[in-house]
Specification:
Layout: E1 5-6, H1 14-17, H2 21-38, H3 53-73, H4 77-104, H5 114-119, H6 128-136, H7 142-148, H8 153-165, H9 171-174, E2 180-181, H10 186-212, H11 221-227, H12 242-255, H13 257-266
Helix pairs in contact: 2-3, 3-4, 4-6, 4-8, 4-10, 7-13, 12-13
C-alpha cells in the first residue's frame, strides 16, 4: 500500500506547524536585519557605494529567509529547498566579495574592479565554483576553511538543494504538493533535516564573516559616545554587541566549538 493518499485541503499537522524551524527562521531573520542596519556606516574599501555593500546583501538574505518561512508554512518543502540553495549562494557571494576586496584592493583599482563592475551591472559575478575555489585557496581564511571542510557536510547540503531544485527524484515532486498526505511523519522529519541544513549554512557564513570582519561584531557603545561628543570608555572599540555574543555562543560555540576557538584566537574583539 502506498504511504500517501490524496486529500483535498490537507491540514498540516500540529507537529509540523509548531516545528522549531519556524522559531529558528525568525531568529536568523532578526539577526540579519539587525546586522544590516548596524554595519551600514562601515566603509568597504574598493566598493563604490555610499552604504556598505554588505548591508544590502544581509537585507536581501533576510528577505530570502522570510520567503523560506512562508514557503515552509504552506507545506512546499521542495520549493523551500530551492530557496535554501539561493541562500547558500548568497552567503558564498558575500564572503567572496569581502575576501576579493580585501586581497585585490589597491588605490589604482578603487573605482574599477570585479565587484564594482558587478554592482554597476557591467558584468556577472563569477560562477559558484570559481568563487568557492577562490575562498578555498585563500591563506587568509585557511584556519576556518580547514575546519569547515574537514567532512562532506556542505557537499551533502549542496547536493540535497540541487536534487530538490532539479526534481532529481520523483518524491521531491510530492514534497511540493501540500494536498498529499505522505504519512509516517515524512514532512515533519524533512523539516528537521532542513533545519539542520539551514543551521550549517548559517554557521559557515558567520564563521567566515566574523573571521574576516571582526569589527562587524562591535557593540554600539563606542560610536554612540563619539556621536554624543563624549570620550568612549577605554577598550570599548573591542566590546562585542550582546546579540552577536548570543549568536556566537548559541549557534557557533554550541555546534562548532572548534571553529569558535579559532575565531576567538584570531580576532581583536572581546569575545567570551
Amino acid at each position: 500500500m502506498n504511504s500517501f493518499n490524496f486529500e483535498s485541503n490537507l491540514e498540516l499537522s500540529d507537529e509540523y506547524k509548531t516545528h522549531p524551524i519556524f522559531k529558528q527562521l525568525d531568529e536568523y531573520n532578526s539577526f540579519y536585519d539587525s546586522l544590516s542596519f548596524s554595519i551600514m556606516g562601515f566603509i568597504k574599501p574598493g566598493a563604490v557605494s555610499i552604504i556598505n555593500l554588505d548591508s544590502y546583501v544581509y537585507s536581501s538574505i533576510q528577505g530570502t529567509l522570510e520567503s523560506i518561512n512562508l514557503t515552509l508554512k504552506s507545506g512546499r518543502i521542495n520549493d523551500a529547498y530551492a530557496l535554501l540553495r539561493k541562500l547558500f549562494d548568497s552567503t558564498i557571494i558575500n564572503i567572496y566579495c569581502n575576501l576579493y576586496l580585501e586581497q585585490e584592493y589597491t588605490i589604482e583599482t578603487h573605482a574599477q574592479n570585479e565587484i564594482n563592475d558587478w554592482m554597476k551591472g557591467n558584468s556577472r559575478i563569477p560562477d559558484y565554483r570559481v568563487m568557492t575555489q577562490y575562498i578555498y585557496k585563500s591563506e587568509r581564511l585557511k584556519p576556518i576553511m580547514e575546519l569547515l571542510r574537514n567532512d562532506d557536510r556542505y557537499k551533502k547540503i549542496r547536493d540535497r538543494c540541487n536534487a530538490h531544485t532539479h526534481y532529481n527524484f520523483f518524491r521531491y515532486v510530492l514534497h511540493n504538493d501540500n494536498r498529499i498526505h505522505l504519512g509516517n511523519n515524512i514532512r515533519e522529519n524533512m523539516l528537521s533535516v532542513f533545519s539542520e541544513d539551514l543551521k550549517q549554512i548559517y554557521i559557515q557564513h558567520l564563521s567566515y564573516l566574523f573571521f574576516l570582519n571582526g569589527h562587524y561584531m562591535m557593540s554600539s557603545d563606542y560610536m554612540d559616545h563619539l556621536e554624543m561628543g563624549m570620550t568612549p570608555p577605554e577598550g570599548s572599540e573591542k566590546w562585542v554587541s550582546p546579540p552577536i555574543q548570543d549568536v556566537f555562543n548559541n549557534v557557533i560555540k554550541s555546534s562548532r566549538p572548534d571553529i569558535a576557538e579559532v575565531i576567538k584566537r584570531h580576532t581583536s574583539m572581546d569575545l567570551s
